[in-house]
Write a structure and sequence with these properties.
The protein is α/β, with parallel strands linked by helices. Helices cover 38% and strands 14% of the residues. Bound molecules: pyridoxal-5'-phosphate.
Length: 442
């Protein structure tokens, strides 16, 4: 049966349109779904799907019938069977996420952490080794530190800005290099192309089965500000809970990568079960991704103004925001943090430290600023998470990164006085007003 394509897919090939446009419309008609008569695709709220014959049911299972190590079947299930194997809302969202990140395929998960676990699951096995940048999001640190070693996966911590140390850390067992850029929470950057170039060289002497992969957690930047796949990495993982949804109502995660990984990720998701609920996929698809560009354009402008305000204040010792001229890695920032129009897009997050002679004094001051804001500020809220339309502030040392022991935090670059600020959609002057009051109370 040949169906007439929907009007939206008939004219110009969709690749000619800008990513921002494609994130508004997505694909309303494919062999697996037909929403060409809906303006907005409905929430698919069905855990299971009617199968007309056993033969047709068997066809749907083909893509999941093979076992680990035998992945020739390219997933093209003609029908849906059961939500954990796949359903239309997630598939629609995954197509758009692949578009957003310029990747070949995307597979969503229940949270960012579930996506990270899946990536580790498909690439690593007993005896293999992961090399991670010395500073990571606290839960990622905990996953690598507390869980991977239980499966006999070795974790090495290296400063990815020290190329020599990185080269020396790589062994024949190394399968994955993993980092964030900007690094949560310090806003330090890793030069993606330097790492990729090094690994490319290395892989020339390795068989396909032994090759080293590079993965970037792109949660901080979002694909609006940075697309690591364009710089040659193999995989992007990110939380959808943060900037991509932006409204703070749902959780989700995604792995974007080469098409060969699609089957592995689907099979992993089916068997480990960290599937994104269709009711959470839907707002990310309908509200989050389509509004990402317009939100972030505005939020970046505000972040720039707030960072400039903090920087000129004598009571502040350091402001790390990639958009500032004083930012140490300004060159790398401009090279790899760009929006879809190749304009500099330094993101919505910053890290700042109040002046103080000792770490204890800086910690006390940070405490006073953040607690004052928690009690008195209208435009800022003491809360973890980031990339939200509401401005959020937190103290990484005692909150998001508390799984890293204090002495390790210092060694790896987190100051006890460090404060993380995620800028929302409020008017810049209002955020600055509330910051002025908090600094006066410090
Ligand atoms: C929040 C976050 C995660 C985890 O995402 P969840 O959706 O909360 O599981 C991973 N990496 C970074 C950098 C994050 O900020």
């Amino acid at each position: 049966m040949k169906k007439k394509a929907s009007p939206k897919s008939r004219r110009t090939p969709k690749g000619t349109y800008a990513p921002e446009t494609r994130l508004i419309w997505g694909e309303s008609f494919t062999p697996k779904w037909d929403y060409s008569h809906h303006l907005i695709p409905p929430i698919s709220s069905s855990s299971t799907f009617r199968l007309s014959t056993t033969k047709r049911g068997a066809k749907g299972f083909i893509e999941f019938a093979h076992h680990a190590g035998d992945f020739e079947v390219q997933s093209k299930a003609p029908i849906y069977i059961y939500d954990r194997l796949g359903e239309p809302n997630k598939d629609l969202l995954e197509q758009n996420l692949a578009t957003a990140e310029h990747g070949e395929c995307a597979v969503t998960f229940s949270t960012g952490m579930a996506a990270e676990s899946a990536l580790c699951g498909i690439l690593l096995g007993a005896g293999s080794e992961i090399i991670a940048h010395q500073m990571l999001y606290g839960c990622t640190y905990s996953l690598f530190k507390n869980w991977l070693p239980r499966y006999n996966i070795k974790v090495k911590w290296v400063d990815f800005n020290d190329k020599k140390a990185l080269v020396n850390a790589i062994s024949p067992r190394t399968r994955l290099l993993y980092f964030e850029t900007p690094v949560n929470p310090t806003m330090e950057l890793i030069d993606i192309e330097t790492v990729v170039g090094m690994v490319k060289q290395l892989n020339q002497n390795r068989t396909q089965a032994n090759r080293v992969f590079v993965a970037v957690d792109n949660t901080f930047a979002t694909p609006f500000c940075q697309r690591p796949l364009e710089h040659g990495v193999d995989f992007v993982v990110e939380s959808l809970t943060k900037g991509i949804l932006g409204f703070g109502t749902d959780m989700g995660g995604v792995v974007v990568g080469p098409s060969w990984s699609y089957d592995h990720l689907l099979l992993y998701r089916k068997d480990f079960g960290g599937v994104l609920s269709s009711k959470s996929a839907w707002p990310i698809l309908v509200y989050g991704l389509p509004s990402l560009a317009v939100r972030f354009r505005q939020q970046i402008q505000t972040a720039q103004q707030v960072a400039e305000y903090l920087e000129q204040d004598k009571r502040i010792g350091l402001v790390n925001y990639p958009g500032l001229d004083s930012f140490k890695q300004r060159g790398i920032a401009r090279q790899q943090m760009q929006n879809y129009d190749k304009e500099f897009a330094p993101g919505v997050l910053m890290y700042f430290i109040p002046k103080g002679k000792t770490p204890a004094e800086r910690h006390r001051k940070a405490d006073r600023i953040v607690n004052y804001i928690a009690d008195n500020s209208y435009t800022m809220t003491l809360a973890v998470s980031l990339g939200n339309i509401r401005t959020l502030i937190e103290h990484p040392g005692s909150m998001t990164h508390s799984s890293i022991p204090p002495d390790e935090q210092l060694k790896r670059g987190i100051d006890p006085g460090g404060i993380r600020l995620s800028i929302g959609l409020e008017k810049p002057k209002d955020i600055i007003h509330d910051l002025q009051q908090a600094l006066a109370a410090m």
